[in-house]
Amino acid sequence: MTYTAQDMPEAGDTVLVGLSGGVDSTLTALLLKEKGCKVIGVTMSLWDGSIVEIKNDTNRTKIKEACYGPGEEENIQECTAFCEANGIEYHVVDVKEEYKEKVLEYFKSEYRSGRTPNPCIMCNRNIKFGAMLNAVQKLGIDYDYFCTGHYAKIVRPDSGLFGTDERPYMVSGATDVTKDQTYFIYRVPSDILKKVRFPLAGLKKSEVFELARKANLEAANREESQDFVGEEYRDALFADKPSIPGDIIDLDGHILGRHKGIEHYTIGQRKGLDVAVGYPVYVHSIDAKNNLVVLAKNEDLDSTALIADDFVWPGNIEPPEGCQVEALVKIRLASRPVPCKIKAYVPPADDETEYKGKPWIIEFETPQRAVAPGQSAVLYKDGVIIGGGIISRGVK
Description:
five-stranded parallel sheet, 7 helices, 27% strand, 18 strands, alpha/beta, six-stranded antiparallel β-barrel
């Protein structure tokens, strides 16, 4: 299937730009301003100060450059100064409660259920392309386009998707494949994507920094922010209630040691297991019901397929009944896309899983390692996202 990239904003268009204070979003706003667009900057306020700041050995805040952290006030000050210097209208919208419910609580709940969530995906869907835009609408701000510094592209198919007449707005990869961020935004609905554009789609990261330095942007000298938070911050998030230790076992049920709480483990993990068995072992699975962490050899972590639910399809157009789709799938951000076949999954009578929506089975061309429940399986065809869902489990 062929696709057409959607036009970028032109001179005279009113463009809302999501500003974080980083080089990508700052350069996006400047490029649109120089193009003759009326640019309105907006930053979402997430940090509520409820988590104690964690310091390193030199007493510097470890999480300052995380998207959610105590550095937010400084980021807003930098965005304010940038907008004032460039004659850009600027707003800060408070979405703390939405972020706490849709991202932080989701993050904790998933880990405590033995799953491995991706909070950035839920933040993009529910906050950046959700609650923040709703807050802007309540302010009475109207705009032609919403732009961010993501490395991605908005396209439409030249013919109907999955045999229909529908041509929804879809997400495609950008020029700089090393900075591809399409995985993070696969859940953003097509009706929102209609107004979304990514002006950095045709640039490489090195070119972005070069342009930012030539424009003397302060953001060009900043550290890049982390996507969400590191291990130390995760411990702080889970400090709201005690962890429940339990047994670490092997595939035969033999007890190998004790874990400190299942929320501290993820599928494929090797470090920090504190067991000695004479050969390398990895987290094979997590049994939340019985509070067990199961370890195995590396070769035991392969899956031939996975079951995913909570699926999203562009324009809510899913493959027709009985259809098997061939595509590429990414089972985590860092994994390379691999060939697969996708079809609707009909649970057998003994399957007691409570699926969220219609489940789908994704069969790999070659077995994949460490399929983690809670992560997203994102489907690509011709470089464009055609759907994706949350992994329920791997199939051996």
